[in-house]
Amino acid sequence: MIPPALCFYKKDFKNMNLTTKLSMLLTALMMVVGCSNKKDEATTKTPVVDNEQVEQLVLKNYEALREFYPKEFDTIMEAAEANDCTRPELICILFAIRTAENGRKGIEFGVLHPRAIDQPNSLRVQAGWCAATVSKNYKRWIDSRGKNAEGENVDFITFLGNRYCPVGADNDPNGLNKHWIPNVIKITVRNADAIYK
Fold it and tell me: Most buried of 44, 60, 64, 109, CB within 10 angstroms?
């Protein structure tokens, strides 16, 4: 069974405003893990979701992302598959991070680990590190029932951003990391719009 939120995406996503699109995308994420939208509440019952059916529905539309990333699409998808980052929401986020980071060759995804910078086949290496980070943090977010370190309910992109690109980090002297979460959210919505059309 396809979750109602995803059916709604498929039917009407293009006509929604940015706030509604984001809300629907994050609701779909919350539905998948069984978290409530209400502050400081989490449900213990996870809705029945046929993930295989959802993934088949979206897989045929992944090609729409190729329009945004024509030269990088195959390499990024390969990295996503190799790092268990294949949920539709995570694919949208992975490609959004590529756009938000917009790094030069060698740091395309903004991964600054010494073993990930300026490597041969740098896009694949950077995409792999990013996909692994997204996938691992998604599992952490599920395990935390959608709560951050302070116990507050947060959406997944905020949870990820606090680890991937934290505000006040030593390697961010100009304070640009504060833009990461809103930028990734906006681009994720654009990507979801493309695959759920």
Answer: 109
